[in-house]
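Lesson 9: reading folded outputs for more than one chain in a single document. The general rule is that every protein is listed as its sequence immediately followed by its structure tokens, and records are never interleaved. Here is the first one.
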Amino acid sequence: MSSSGSDGIVGPETARAIGTGRESIGVVLRAAQERLQHVFIAFVVGLLGGIFLMRLYIWPQLEADLLAAEAQVIAQTPFDVILMQVKIGLFGGVAAAVPVLLYHAREPLRDRDIIPDVTVKRWHAAVVGLLCIGLATLGILYAYFLFFPLMFDFLAGNAVGAGLAPKYSIVKWTEFIFFLALSFALAAQLPLLMGALSYSGVVPYEVFRDKWKYAVMGIFAFGAFFSPPDPFTQILWATPLILLYGLSLYISKILVTMKRGREHVDVSGVFRERWNRILGVGVLGFAGGYAAGMYGAVGAFNDGLAFIGSQVRVPTVAEALGVPPETGYLLLGGLVAVLALVAAALYYAYVAVDRAARVVAERNRRPDPAAIDLDELDAAGVRGAPPEAFAALSEDEALATAQRALDDGDDEKAQLVLDRFDEIQAAAEEAAEAEDADEAAGDDSNPVQSTAAGMMDAFTDEETTEDDIGGYYYDIRFVLSSLRSRAFHIVGTFMVVMVALFGWLYYGGFGDLRDDFIARIPAEVQPEAAAWPITLHPVEALVFQVKLSVVIAAIAVLPMIVYYLWPALSDRGVVTGDRRTILVWGGSIVVALAAGSYLGYSFIAPEVISYLVYDALREGMVISYTVSTFAWLIFLLTVGIGLLADIPVTMVLFHVGGIVSFDTMRARWRVPVLAIFAASALLTPDSLYTMFVIALPMVAMYLVGLGLLYLVTLGGRRGGSGRAVGE
């Protein structure tokens, strides 16, 4: 039985792919075993080289070039520095050993037909390798000399403006730099990757061309998550990637067209035809560059950078090269002219390729069988016509065609038209019936339902069947599908709340909150300006602001989700009671959250923080609370208190509204208690202490809610089931 279930879940193709992958790994490991000395030497050389380069050159250069003036780098443990060097060395060792390992494994892989036995000329491989290295180098240089300095200056300035101390962990700061540099190096391979996929046909060029909007949206979305949110940094992130995507489309178009119809590409002919336009573009480029230098375009560009808050300034050609202004204007005009000529040449090369592509498309175009005019055919032609010509006809059209043949006196053609039409319709009906039968057979045994039934059977007293699981699955799909029409309202509200809160925190709200809260702490334990909290990671403050905005937005839309789910839940018999209770519940959540937050922010949190700080200062310690731990502690002592107050309020309202009765809450108290501990274990850091700190107050408030309901219902005698209250 297990084997059949496995066969239903894992198909034969997947099993073969897994087997091939396992065999490939085995071949590579055996090759490493046989040539272990070579691989080990390469690994050791890369390891030692990485350690010494990191110690003597890389780290001092990174600190000199990329560390902002307001920031410091600290070591949190005695082993941070040496472990960082070893990590970089291990990366270098693996990078040096993998090519050697693959070189020795190529023959065994070919012998087992795991990789194709394709002979590649060495100079071809060398060109591809040099292109990969060159593109990666360009990506890293762009990131190192332009993107990183601007980004780190912005992040440090944002932290200082929010009253935080940027004291980066050497491990987190260095890893952040290396991973971002690696992402730019990999992104720079986009032209090669898209060209290879298009040329090989794995992903057609037309897919990359038609889906460019999704690519641009993905680039900006990725940049929104992994780069600072100011517009200038977003442009610095997205612009080179979009240009790379355009260049990749250009290269892919040329490669695909050369593959499909090399003989039709006539670049020189297009250049001879359009030489005057190419030359005119160069002249206009020179004039534009000269005019831009003479009339202060560089200064206007710098004014625009200053307007958006950037500290970057672009020097003029004369300032950069130390030449007279007139010479600078000429050099700038010449540079723009060269760039314009290159752009024009690339454009007209694309024109030549596009002409060839149209010729190839016209040559490969096939007539549509469904577009055949049956009236123009004789009886023999109707007999030999493709089935698509009759499948495209309706019954009335077939009868009309046969009638026209009868009017022309061709009885044989008329009969053939009707016979062919009936054959095609009968075949289509049989295919539809067979497809319905296959779907019905597939519905009889669903591997997901059977697997879920087997799992649930182990935790229930009675046997759980596939019909039970299918019913639960149908109920869940029915309930969730009811949100589909309301998704715009839910997502819209979530985004508005999140963006508004994040915008307020980002544009000074976080700093105002920090200063106001620190002012509530007793003067004898108040920190110096920007002494703490500290940021151990360059984007730690931004990440906290995003997380806090998401949490508050999720709380804001929770009553809305329950309200919209109510009709579906009521139809399935999951809930009962008055739907209007949800509206009251939503308002009570806001009131209790606001009241609890005010109580915690004004009285509880300052006292707790002052006690913790005083205790540390009394022992002669240096306070360096990180922004994540400090801010989340304040959140728990303010908003968390409001959320705790919402627990008994929710219990009372649900009982009064007839949604969940007091008897049910009291009889099944273990379910919410276990759910609270499970959620605390999953959503809090990996610490048993933190789990209890979060879970125990929530359990206590649940017991408080039970106590309030006990008093309201007189021990369950007055509306304990919820019906009396509802009545």
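And here is the second record, again sequence then tokens.
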Amino acid sequence: MGGVAFEVAFEGDALALGEEHLRFVSPPELARPLVVVKVDASVRSAGPREDPRRIDAGPGWVRTADAHVRWRREGHGRYAAEAELEAPYGLSHMTTALTGALVSAEGGLVLHAAAVVLEERAVLLIGPSGAGKTSAACLCEGTRWLAKDRVALLPTGEGWRAWGMPGGDDITLPQAPNRPLPVAAIARVRRADEAPSLRRLDPLRALVALRESTQTAGSEPALDAPAALAEAVPVYELRGRLDRPLTASLREALA
């Protein structure tokens, strides 16, 4: 699934990925995982109903309402895990939660972001809920969407790579295959009653923008990964009315 390959073993047929998660499975011919995790899973009885969106995590473990997982590192980019999952959604929720945990363990992060693919590079649109990320993505005519609401990012020897994670409102563009792509730029979307413009942020404002969009599991986001990302990738503010195509402006900024 994007930059993380899950090798899950379990008995029976009670577990399956949900429809939304299936949209983010990488085509085998394009799969180039940066992280591989082998999961020994068992199916457990349903427990008390909890918020299915909540994720708790700590060193070597991650937990959702229907997925309890313990994981350990076995080498660079290689992990093993044991999981207790509830049907029918435990497998889907495990992949989401464990992706975040392993990406963080490898020095990366998950951003609350939409993303489009421009010339085989990812352009991320970040901001809090209601900022206009989905609207801005829909205005990137001629591109394809990589993510609707969450993006996983990892540093590699060839720069930062990004891929999409499940969730978010539909974007009226074709979907790109979900594989790790180089990150061209990140834009903090900010609505204003003026013509849209792109302005590169200074390092401090770039760090603030990234930190406010970093997703964590029950703790304050660390500064190391956002700071490294801000140093390596240009961060812009996309400010103005979201009422016209944005692709040309993005191309000009990235030229």
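What the second record shows: The first strand starts at residue 4 and ends at 9.
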